[in-house]
Design goal:
The protein contains 7 helices and 2 strands; from the N terminus they run αββαααααα. It is mainly α. Strands 1-2 form a two-stranded antiparallel sheet.
Length: 235
């Protein structure tokens, strides 16, 4: 997540250095709407998304403990979504067909990640319930925030909002989908702890049973472990 925030900050810095068509990451395109109207095109923004959104998807999948093949498939859908959106924003005649294609990949991506991650999160409920809840929270935060980007795209392409409103809107959405996402992901150290193995869970249960017997016999015993986390010395 540090890389995600650094990439976004760098792209915003380069786009803000010279907010003219000749500036870094900014150009103009002609929208094909029966006339030819020049419009600012922040192509650096799509480079930002191409680099950061796969990392965000990978983070959700890794927290849910998906396999490498499942993660790579989700990342591939994400990159196709961004690439098709770039084509539509860059070439006026293909604006709406490319937008439809990009939305197709977006719906496919969110549906695939949601179903797959929720299935794996169900397996984590017994061993790591807090992680299972965090997977759902990360997914819904991403789903809601990313769903607003197409709305902003339509409003911008239709010239219904000003360029300032467009930039502010994208900045707010980027902050929520990346900054808030990162805080939610890393605020709990259990997100970085792998799921305990079956042997570790068996040893934990044995320790709890020994502790309970010692307490029943009036002997001193440490409090049994109930959080689902396994100490580092358990193998």
């Amino acid at each position: 997540m540090v890389a995600v925030c650094l990439i976004s900050a760098s792209c915003y810095y380069m786009m803000g250095m010279e907010p003219e068509p000749s500036g870094i990451g900014v150009s103009t395109v002609l929208q094909d709407d029966g006339g030819s109207r020049p419009q600012f095109f922040f192509w650096m923004r799509y480079l930002d998304w191409l680099l950061t959104t796969p990392l965000i998807i990978a983070c959700i999948c890794m927290v849910a403990e998906l396999s490498i093949s499942e993660i790579l498939f989700a990342v591939g859908l994400d990159m196709l979504m961004v690439a098709s959106g770039f084509v539509g924003a860059q070439y006026g005649p293909l604006m709406w067909p490319a937008f439809v294609i990009s939305m197709f990949f977006f719906i496919w991506l969110m549906g695939y990640v949601g179903v797959t991650c929720f299935d794996h999160a169900g397996e984590l409920v017994d061993t790591m319930p807090r992680r299972a809840c965090r997977v759902q929270a990360l997914y819904f935060l991403t789903l809601i925030s990313w769903s607003l980007y197409p709305v902003l795209y339509v409003l911008t392409s239709s010239m219904m909002i000003t360029r300032v409103m467009e930039v502010v809107g994208h900045a707010v959405l980027d902050f929520v989908s990346k900054g808030i996402f990162g805080v939610l992901l890393l605020r709990d150290e259990t997100m970085l702890v792998p799921r305990p193995s079956a042997l570790a869970l068996q040893k934990r249960d044995e320790q709890q049973q020994i502790a309970q017997r010692m307490q029943q016999q009036g002997q001193y015993a440490p409090a049994p472990m109930t959080s689902g986390r396994v100490p580092m010395y358990v193998r």
